[in-house]
UniProtKB/TrEMBL annotation:
It comes from Dokdonella immobilis. PROSITE patterns: HTH_LUXR_2 (PS50043), RESPONSE_REGULATORY (PS50110). This is Two component transcriptional regulator, LuxR family. One of its GO terms (molecular function) is DNA binding. GO terms for biological process: phosphorelay signal transduction system; regulation of DNA-templated transcription.
Length: 200
């Protein structure tokens, strides 16, 4: 039996995934969470074989959950099911140890098959996305990405500095580096481009 934990903030999608997987005789949905922090707590409590998670969720994103699982060396394998067909997201997911990356518009039966393959030790990555992921490298480092994300959410440099325990000048330098690397003229354009590419 493949024990699965679902992490998805949209109740309807969460319910549909649970119902879909519940039809499979060899898959058991042992829990479901509506945000990243709840998923992390459930993960430690239930110790599922596989976590099926969205990327964008309140609290922790699916990618941050995967990174935390990797950092704590937990045996749970991570499958991302998302609407984001962005190569940058896939690259970051693979770096975080994710073994499955499926798009929500794929046929429903693909998910159960992917879970079986992953449970046997394999991987299941959307093929076209896998090709695209290696066509353009993410130029940002982790700190630039973090600062740019906060800036894109409307935070001023001083507030970002306080939040990350950095100096105001250091935050400005990170923003300036990110803008330069992306070849745009300001932080908003940099944020938009990085989001579009899946680098944030």
């Amino acid at each position: 039996m493949i024990r699965v934990l679902l992490a998805e903030d949209q109740a309807m999608v969460r319910g549909a995934l649970s119902a879909l997987l519940g039809l499979e005789s060899d898959i058991e949905v042992v829990g479901a969470a509506a945000d990243g922090e709840s998923a992390w707590r459930e993960l430690q409590r239930l110790k599922p074989d596989v976590l099926v998670t969205d990327i964008e969720m309140p609290g922790l994103t699916g990618l941050e959950l995967a990174q935390r699982i990797q950092r704590h060396e937990l045996p749970t394998r991570v499958v991302i099911v998302t609407t984001f067909a962005r190569p940058g997201f896939l690259r970051r997911a693979l770096d975080a140890g994710v073994v499955g990356y499926l798009l929500k518009d794929a046929p429903a039966e693909n998910l159960a098959e992917a879970l079986r393959k992953i449970h046997r030790g394999g991987r299941s990555i959307d093929p076209q996305l896998a090709v695209d992921a290696w066509s353009e490298a993410d130029p940002l480092n982790e700190r630039e990405r973090q600062v740019l994300r906060f800036a894109g959410e409307g935070m001023a440099a001083g507030d970002i500095a306080a939040k990350l325990n950095l100096s105001h000048g250091t935050v400005r330098n990170y923003l300036s580096e990110a803008i330069g690397k992306l070849g745009v003229s300001n932080r908003i354009e940099a944020y938009r481009m990085a989001r579009q590419k899946g680098w944030l």
